[in-house]
Specification:
This protein is an alpha/beta fold and 810 residues long. The chain has 26 helices and 23 strands. The protein is flat. The protein starts with a helix and ends with a helix.
């Protein structure tokens, strides 16, 4: 492709994608008896598509756009028929695909697209326009022509012929669509370009003539009234958006460059925080210097009192230190003032960039309309798509990331949820189903819900599919409530489709939705009513640019949580802890909230027994709240989250990493994954899962036993020794303890004796799992009060699960 086209292509592609989005949305509204001026507007968009493609030599796109324009020009409302709308939507989709095709602008199904459009018109599609039709010429066409003419001035003989042919084609197209003097000027431009195609051409004269004709064409177009305009004023057909004021002109910027600038601004904010910290350190140094000066002054005064000759040099040094202290204090104040100004400017710049990145949600949702229509027609279903809240603005990056999940959810609703018209009629429902996409703001978060009024999810089918595909065991899914079974739909590889089709059946889709939403720092959930419909709800941040994190210390390490996920900081006394359905909880605003330590949630170790008030973070995500105890809060920090590398991308609970202002690299946690699965079940009518403490100083054994029990459906709390197990049992409660015998601090026999001596824990069953298999070791364990004694090789043989089920029959 010529260099000129390569340079123009990014602008052309962006403009064309905007135009086909407007065109698709407008075509969808035609069946609702759109006003005549809206049809004229769509014709204008289609004509612009045609003209821009002609200027760049994209003949296939030009033909398709021209055919769409012809369909829109049909009288008697033919363009509003279902067949016409379907054919035009297919044509628009083909143009969109052609923008990404190789070679650019190639349409594989050109003949089929034109045939469908021709069937609507009753004649072959793609005919040239009638001579003398006056149309508006988009600026992009003339700019492309001007660039072509400019390129002819410097092109060599080999390239000149191709450029001249392209200019002649575009000028011929304009000459056939314009009228009057404008058509004559376009024809002159075409003739001048044709003179450059053959050998022996007078190149300077022809190029000069082409440039003059182009200038004259611009002037004629500026004087030519728009279609339908007369001296009486504008008619409905000539209505067009008002010109943008000069001080409000729009500038098209590549999204990648805007993202780069936004990332740089985030780093700038972090750098400002670093300078503020250094300014505070300088102030502390200046204060320490003043205190040191006071000590020296007392020492010098004593020397002078005793007429010590060493006082003179000390006095001189003291004066110098005093002068240095004044300079240091001045620099500290100036540094603090400068950093404060930089902070205000940086945060203002971040806010301005965020506003630039914010776009109406409707711009991303509009593309779903033609997709819903095409898929519904393919499946033989009648579906009305309703979009509410499209005016809400959110980060363009968030909207781009959500396009694929939204499409997955829409396709899932059409294929699995919504019934055929016959089935809906038999169920007493309207034949036309309703698919609603709703966008709602929740503070600095946004909820996107996809709801259909179809048959609803089938928990039994999901349970059966999970077992059939080896994703869960029958006893595991049997213990799931219907709400928990519905969430099986988000597991990778799970599908309830009877056969694999082009739409579904591969088990890929909803797991991608969940992964994408969580990568954005959000959460996804599903609710349903049998026979009445299904609702998927995605909760995501309004923007992913810049954030503030709350730094904490837990289990000897540090971590960060986004501030917007921390509802409040709690001070929890040991007496405030309670048990709800066998789980530790704390009451907040009259509601029992799950309580656990951050160290346990992250698998980073076990906290010591509480000796006083506990600092806890009340974290909210996905409509759930959990209180996490931490060792210490270290304050709020401006952060710029960087993604993890491939090797760490699967790290549990971790969304990314950030560099603090002191140079430390700290993990940024995902609130949705921390909170997920920690619901209190005791008061919901659902069976509460038994809580089992597993104590073993061997990490591999502890993980093996934990995994075995979790797969069986139990809630497992792993610890590394008997002391931690005892503290956890007293703090959070448990239904059973599985313990090794040989452990540091407190061994298994010591743990067993202390549990049995505690009135509140004496009835808790204890199973000892150890490598000591001598008869005297077994006897010692049973005499100490163990309810079961197993050697470790029996764990994988199923003996442990058998014993646990005997001791916890409920």
């Amino acid at each position: 492709m010529p260099d000129m086209v390569e340079q123009v292509w990014p602008i052309y592609e962006a403009e064309t994608r905007d135009q086909i989005q407007v065109l698709a949305a407008g075509i969808m509204e035609l069946e609702a008896a759109a006003a005549p001026d809206s049809v004229v507007g769509l014709r204008r968009v289609a004509h612009s598509l045609k003209g821009s493609a002609a200027a760049l030599g994209l003949n296939q796109i030009e033909q398709v756009a021209h055919a769409v324009e012809d369909v829109l020009a049909l009288a008697d409302g033919v363009h509003r028929s279902g067949g016409a709308v379907q054919a035009m939507l297919g044509a628009v989709r083909a143009i969109g695909e052609a923008l990404s095709a190789t070679p650019r602008g190639h349409i594989d199904e050109l003949a089929e697209v034109l045939a469908r459009l021709g069937a609507v018109m009753g004649r072959p599609a793609g005919r040239p326009p009638e001579r003398g039709e006056v149309v508006a010429v988009p600026d992009g066409v003339l700019e492309a022509l001007a660039a072509t003419v400019a390129a002819l001035c410097t092109a060599d003989e080999a390239a000149r012929s191709g450029l001249a042919a392209r200019a002649r084609t575009a000028a011929d197209h304009l000459a056939s669509t314009l009228s009057g003097r404008a058509a004559e000027r376009a024809g002159g431009l075409a003739r001048a370009a044709a003179e450059l195609e053959g050998p022996g051409a007078d190149v300077p004269r022809a190029i000069a003539r082409a440039g003059a004709e182009l200038v004259a064409l611009r002037a004629e177009l500026a004087r030519t009234p728009a279609p339908g305009r007369s001296g009486e004023g504008p008619t409905p057909e000539s209505t067009s958006p008002p010109a943008t004021p000069r001080d409000e002109r729009l500038v098209r910027v590549q999204a990648a460059r805007l993202d780069t600038v936004a990332n740089d601004v985030d780093q700038l904010v972090v750098g400002v925080s670093r300078r503020e910290r250094r300014s505070r350190e300088v102030q502390r140094l200046e204060k320490a210097l003043r205190e040191t000066l006071r000590l020296l002054e007392r020492g010098v005064a004593e020397c002078q009192l005793h007429d010590d000759p060493r006082a003179r040099p000390l006095t001189d040094g003291l004066e110098r230190l005093r002068a240095l202290g004044l300079q240091l204090g001045r620099h500290a104040r100036e540094g603090r003032r400068d950093s404060e100004q930089e902070r205000l400017l940086a945060h203002g710049l971040r806010g301005a960039l965020q506003s630039l990145r914010m776009v109406p949600a409707g711009t991303g949702l509009a593309a779903l309309r033609p997709a819903v229509r095409e898929l519904a027609a393919q499946l033989g279903k009648d579906v009305a798509l309703r979009i509410t809240g499209g005016e809400l603005r959110l980060d363009r990056r968030v909207l781009e990331e959500l396009k694929s999940p939204l499409l997955h959810l829409v396709r899932n609703a059409l294929d699995h949820g919504i019934e055929t018209p016959a089935l809906r009629r038999a169920a007493g429902k309207p034949e036309q189903a309703v698919l609603e996409i709703r966008v709602e703001a929740r503070g600095d978060r946004v909820l996107l819900s996809v709801r259909d009024d179809g048959a609803g999810l089938s928990p039994d089918r999901l349970r059966a599919a999970a077992v059939q595909r080896g994703l869960a065991r029958p006893d595991e899914v049997g213990r799931l409530s219907d709400a928990e079974a519905a969430r099986l739909a988000f597991r990778p590889g799970l599908s309830t489709a009877a056969q694999v089709t082009a739409v579904s059946g591969r088990g890929v889709g909803l797991d991608v939705v969940a992964e994408t939403v969580r990568r954005l720092g959000g959460d996804v959930d599903v609710t349903f009513e049998v026979g009445r419909g299904t609702t998927f709800v995605m909760e995501v941040p309004l923007t992913v640019s810049g954030a503030t994190g709350l730094l904490f210390r837990a289990a000897g390490g540090t971590g960060l949580l986004p501030v917007d996920a921390v509802e409040r900081v709690l001070l929890v006394e040991p007496a405030d802890l309670t048990s709800f359905g066998g789980q530790a909880a704390v009451v907040v605003d009259g509601e029992a909230v799950p309580f656990t330590s951050m160290a346990q949630a992250l698998g980073a170790g076990d906290p010591p027994a509480p000796r006083g008030p506990l600092v806890a973070l009340l974290v909210a995500a996905g409509g759930q709240r959990v209180a996490f105890a931490v060792d210490e809060l270290l304050g709020a920090h401006a952060i710029s989250v960087s993604p993890l590398g491939r090797r760490l991308a699967s790290a549990r609970h971790v969304a990314g990493a950030t560099v603090l202002d002191d140079g430390r690299v700290v993990a940024v946690l995902q609130p949705a994954l921390l909170v997920g699965g920690r619901r209190l079940t005791g008061g919901t009518g659902e069976p509460a899962r038994a809580r089992i403490i597993v104590a073993d100083d061997s990490l591999s054994t502890r993980m093996t036993v934990t995994h075995l029990l979790e797969v069986a459906g139990y809630t497992v709390l792993p610890v590394a020794d008997g002391e931690a197990a005892l503290a956890l049992a007293r703090q959070a409660g448990c239904d059973l303890v599985v313990s090794d015998v040989q452990m540091p601090r407190l061994d298994g026999l010591g743990l067993l004796r202390r549990l049995k001596a505690d009135p509140g824990l004496a009835s808790v069953p204890v199973i000892l799992v150890t490598s000591l298999d001598a008869p005297e070791d077994r006897a010692a364990g049973l005499e100490a009060g163990a309810d079961g004694y197993l050697v470790k090789r029996d764990v994988q043989r199923g003996r442990l699960l058998e014993l646990v089920r005997q001791l916890l029959p409920a």
